[in-house]
Give the backbone structure.
Amino acid sequence: MTPEIPFRRNVVEPVQCIKGGWEIIKNQYWLFVGMTLVGVLIGGAVPIVLMGPMMCGLNLAFLKTRRGEPIEFGTLFKGFDYFGQSVIASVLHTIPVIVIVVPAYILFYVFMFVGIAASSSGGGDPNPAAFFGVMAMFGLFWLVVVAIIIVISIGFIFVYPLIVDRKLSAIDAIKLSFRAALSNFWRLLGMVLLTSLMSVVGVLACYIGAFLVMPISYAAIAKAYEQVFGLADESAFSNLPPPPPVFN
């Protein structure tokens, strides 16, 4: 049975997370830029299989740096030590998003055709009001979809740090991450919005700036994790092997 891991409620400070994230990476900034860029590129190649290990590797680097331990570029690939659990977490994160997004896109075309049919019904002149009315309803529907995806994404925000730092299984990490994240939801949402704004500014700076702020965004999550859970006592895990891979 997994021991109960306590967490703090309403403690995430969005601005302090970003500042703290910068403090974590600033002395090895370009190393973290390279690790983040490579991790995102490799993870994006086969997201369900590779993104989880890459995120575990990045979080391992953040946690080691926070503890004053040395890291190197190869630390990124230490995330494969948690391959099985990270893949399970990625799959369980991706499935509900796909289940929501795919029908939403199908409904987009349904709403569009219904709107066109409504605007041209009656045999007279086209009625733009009917078309825009239908599309407005679809816009509200998409707002609900986006809100659900945001809740899911924030719920998963601590999963990879928990797998790496607390050696939890994917299922236990997801359960605990959701409990802790929802107890800090609005503060985490504020942090995500701030880091997203940083990314938008980076994109406007010839797009290259987005890659330069990306490690700060991920490090901010690591700092938020520390605010909510603290850092694990590694001596408790020193004699334990990493979680074994799970194959279905």
